[in-house]
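Lay summary. Proteins are chains of building blocks that fold into shapes, and those shapes determine what they do. In this project we predict the shape from the chain. Here is one chain we studied, written as its sequence of building blocks.
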Amino acid sequence: MKSFVKLFLISILVFFTFSGLGQIDLEKTVTKKVEKKVKREVNKTIDKSLETDKKKEDSPKNETASNDESNAKNDSEKVMQDDDSKKNLKIWSKYDFVPGDKVIFEDNLSGEKHGEFPSRWNLVGGNAEIGIFGDENVIAFMKNQTEISPLMKTKEYLPEIFTVEFDIYYFNKGNEAYYLNLKDQKQMTIRAKKVSLGKFEGEPEESSRETGWHHIALSFNQRALKVYFDHTRVLNIPNIEKRPTSLTISALSHGGKKGDPSMIKNIRIAEGGVELYDKLLTDGKIITRGIYFDVGKSTIKPESMGVINEIVKLMNDHPDIKFSVEGHTDSDGNDAFNQKLSEDRAGAVKAQLIESGIESARLESKGHGESMPVDDNSTPEGKANNRRVEFIRI
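And here is the predicted shape, written in a compact code that computers can read:
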């Protein structure tokens, strides 16, 4: 197991570290390293644009064939994208992590200004700021041992049952370490005295060690703690003596070349974790916010497979159950777009259930767009709660 995985796991198991509550002012200037990274990305975009323009100038203008060729190329790329998506989902076919029912903190970093401190976080120590990696906003840890905490209304915000998810970037170079630090009610260190209770259940596959983004998920249920690295459950601690009430995220050192910042994105904390079948019995439906899609698209993200796999298991265990899969969006975008998007997303989930072995006759799908909100669309958490997929028993 690579050192960065070990360090990440050890931080959860042992260090649950104490952190001060004060916030340190962050310099507003963009560091040279981030400037260089942004410049490289901009140059790449410009080079691609120039190359495309040159090809257009050099190519013969056959107007009759151009449209057909363009359409064929788009269709080919769409099929390839679908095939890649199916391949990724299949890799996650045994993933069993199910996020909490209600989102209490959500930060997809939208609307953030590059070079500024992330607006939804406190700085405990070090130096962090919003960076641009590719075409996405990320939180970049600019100094060694940088530590941040979610900006919440109360000091104690973690319920007895909760889940945490976020993405980390792995450079596959140097000594990299990302820490999720859980703190108790008194903001004191929680020491895992019985380290033997921590069981390493699996080691991430070679593909999980590739340079790029990787998904981290943690679930806590009163005393039990589980940790997932991509689609592998890597740690299981059945008994933690003290209950965590807050958390911080930190990076011990930079990855990659000297000066490259450690990076995270897509941070979500959710409350609850009732068994899906119990939800169905009490409510007649299952509402989940754990099926994720690419922004503005119906492409299912691999980390959604935890919920989908549980739905498949439930339907296999109870052959009489039939579902209407119903999609809902937040209020961003226009009504017509959101209506179509919700329909496409519900259809994509239905298709994945069929791909996983469920008979099509047991499934229907429909979308409601933004017409049936269950939370306030004025906050990131409210929007996250409105973006949902419901499984209505029929």
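What the prediction tells us: Confidence is low (pLDDT under 50) at residues 1-7, 9-81, 192-200.
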